[in-house]
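It is worth pausing here to work through a concrete case rather than discussing structure prediction in the abstract. The textbook approach is simple: state the sequence, then state the predicted structure, then interpret. We follow exactly that order.
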Amino acid sequence: MKHYLIIQLARFGDLVQTKRLAATLLARPGAAVHLCVDASLEPLARLVYPEAEVHPIMAHGMGLGGCEAALRALTDNRRAFDRLTAVNFETVYNLNFSGLNFRLAALFDPERVEGYAWKNGQEITGTWPAMAMRWTGHRRIGINLVDFWAGYCPDMIAPDAVNPTAVPKGEGIGVVLAGRESRRSLPAPLLARMAATTAGTQASERIVLLGGPSEARAGQEVVKNLPAQLQDKTENLAGKTNWRSLADVVGSLDMLLTPDTGTMHLAAHLGTPVTAFFLSSAWCFETGPYGRGHIVYQAVRDCLPCLESAPCPIETACLDGFADPGFQRLLATRKAAHAPEGVMGLASDFDALGQIYVPFAGKDVDAGQRSRFRDFLGQHLSGRPHAATDADHAFASQFYQEKDWIAKRQHIDTIGY
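Step two, the predicted structure:
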């Protein structure tokens, strides 16, 4: 039996988006897959990856402070590290660019670590993630994160084998109240308008509001802004679900309305249709719902996708298209004639590389360049180049460096803890 370790220390959505990589490893004959995750996500990891062995560590804190947090991290993580080093891993897939990930990589032979390794006191980045860092300056043509992580494996499974095709489940509409970054979410009154339009179109008898405890008040505001006949049909579950009950609710819905959130990725994993609203730093071609049967409404402006850590100098103008009255007609009909300026409607689909989104309303001005870039990456991953085009030469000069051919892994400047 060959053991494979995936170190995924990021958050909810990232854990679910690791699925194509995990499924590829599980499909190998005689494979045993291990997942190292933050302890807060251990129950979710066991739900999404029941065939994997989960190794929780304290990566993001547990609501503790000072010496107590340090002592807890030291004792709990030491035991977890001992269990990890007791396994002879064939390959370690270290997925996150963080100080803790690099230090954790020091537990293993660097020649067996893909992604971010540690060798002789130096932080080493593999060729594939180094290429990805170079194309972050061209985010509009980038690939889905699910496919990027799967790209570590030349035998990655077919994209349509990752998640089930989404179909309505019969238990109404779910509404995710907010994402981690407020700028990427719709204001409560506007979200209520979206929910009311969708409920009318779907003839839904049930609306469920989803979120954490901090979104409970936003849920109350959404209910207040719904038409009177829908208020009694709406249940505010913000702060009232655990991982298991959240999965049960999401897996029972006809549709989930959501910004770019972890719950969106959970819905895709469960085969629940997603209608997603992407704006600000959220870009569906990078982190949209994975699978067939999903709809994304993507804000389009020259400044998008922006950097979420930078203040917006134009007061989140990318929200304007969603607030336009014409957007409700687009949401109800999906007819291109109703698309307001600044919003593109897309349906999820696949190509040979993985997830794509096909516009049915609005114009995807980057489609040609993105298609050429995807072909370039497909050739890179397969190792079987076609006749080189001018686009291939241009991409190669931008995203390849001489050291890619000299060493499989590269030293980079330290990022510290």
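Step three, interpretation. The chain has a mean pLDDT of 92. DSSP finds 18 helices and 15 strands in the chain.
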